[in-house]
Design a protein that fits this description.
- This protein is an alpha+beta fold.
- The chain folds into 2 domains: about 180 residues, FAD/NAD(P)-binding domain (3-Layer(bba) Sandwich); about 150 residues, D-Amino Acid Oxidase, subunit A, domain 2 (D-Amino Acid Oxidase, Chain A, domain 2, 2-Layer Sandwich), CATH 3.30.9.
- Helices cover about 35% and strands about 25% of the residues.
- The protein contains 12 helices and 19 strands.
- Strands 1, 2, 9, 10, 11, 12, 18 and 19 form an 8-stranded mixed beta sheet that branches. An 8-stranded mixed beta sheet has the order 6-7-5-14-15-16-13-17, sandwiched between helices. A 3-stranded antiparallel beta sheet has the order 3-8-4.
- A hairpin with a 2-residue loop joins strand 10 and strand 11.
- Helix 3 crosses helix 4.
- Bound molecules: flavin-adenine dinucleotide.
Amino acid sequence: MDLKSNEPFWLVKNGLLASYPSLHHDEVCDVLIVGGGITGTLIAHQCIQDGYNTLLIDKREICNGSTSATTSMLQYEIDRPLHELSELIGKDGAVASYRACCKAIDDLGRIAKKIKSDAGFRQKKSLYYAAWKKDVNKLKKEFEARKEAGFKVAWMEAEDIRHQYGILGAHGGILSQEGGSVDAFRLAHEILQYNARKGLRIYDKTELTGVDYKRGFNLCTTATGTTIKAKRVVYCTGYEVANVIPEKFVDLLSTFAIVSEVNEEMYRQYNDILIWNTAAPYLYMRTTDDGRFLIGGEDEEFQDPPRRDALIGVKEQRLLRAFHRIFPDKEFCLDFTWAGTFGETKDGLPYIGEHQNFKNSYFVCGFGGNGITFSVTGMGMVSNWLQSKEHPLSMYFKFGR
Ligand SMILES: Cc1cc2nc3c(=O)[nH]c(=O)nc-3n(C[C@H](O)[C@H](O)[C@H](O)COP(=O)(O)OP(=O)(O)OC[C@H]3O[C@@H](n4cnc5c(N)ncnc54)[C@H](O)[C@@H]3O)c2cc1C
């Protein structure tokens, strides 16, 4: 599957941070992690911390899937508003899912600190504003639901948003204290290097091609002609998992992002906030750790890479126009534009759990706008399951729900 266009900003910014050998001998491990994006990396970090003999493979270069294209907003706010999610799955599950994302931001910050990361992890506030007058009542309902559930939120009137953040066209919004951003591509590389020093074996350009389920272990075969005997397999294969699971559980879309040249004025004013809105598809903005301004959105409901990439010029202009509508007096000197595949689920929640067709295995599929925070939550879930313990979120994130 083609997951991204050329020139995602993070790949150009960071270059080839590390490259690993492909696998040319047979291996044995406790846990085989398939996929070396941010998800596989985090799961590997957990497995090494828990003392498992762990091996990670990726069919591409490490972190060259969606993790190189992500815009890496770290949000507790799930694509489904809390009040809607509560109606869909019940209040307990909805609040627990939102809380898990909140905790995930702090957990990721702790990991970044522990490994002495240079990937610009930063806690930020988050402003979710009504793009249209008609959205205000729904947003106020959402504000009440979050306040009642104990999240640190404040309601901002249109006037306050204009005054404090210089945003035109907002009709009111929810200001949350919890949020963050990071360069996920760099962070994933750093986590792998940290764990490689602790015994994690990493092989890139090594595709998993088949699995034979034996009593108590999986015999995995790779495109490099080797076998890996693994007690457990954790699939962290991103959106390509849609090609592996027989039933349809995720809608694949195309999404677009642009990044400006370094802009000190925008950086100073917006470095502590994530901004997104209620438009459909929604528009979102953040600064990068190297002083640029990033805008993403303009999703299209298809996953067709040539068609997606042919739209890049048009989408770039639309995102630029949106910027100038919101910030008419500010400058945006365009530097990078890219497109990527994106996955949405029916309830905005990830699929993290077992699948009946895959024995001795778990899937960690952090989909939607919270892909990264869901993957952090997946660490604790996989850790519990490997110790034969339940996890309270399993029932909300499971396949076939
Ligand atoms: C433009 C864009 C903006 C986004 N913005 C945000 C955001 O602001 N916040 C957020 O949280 N999320 C966001 N996302 C989503 C986020 O990027 C993803 O959730 C995340 O990158 C997924 O990471 P991953 O490791 O699961 O997948 P990937 O990074 O795609 O990694 C999966 C890896 O598995 C490997 N693989 C697949 N099959 C095999 C196989 N058979 N054998 C070996 N290896 C295999 C692939 O080569 C790949 O490297 C965005 C995504 C895009 C495209």
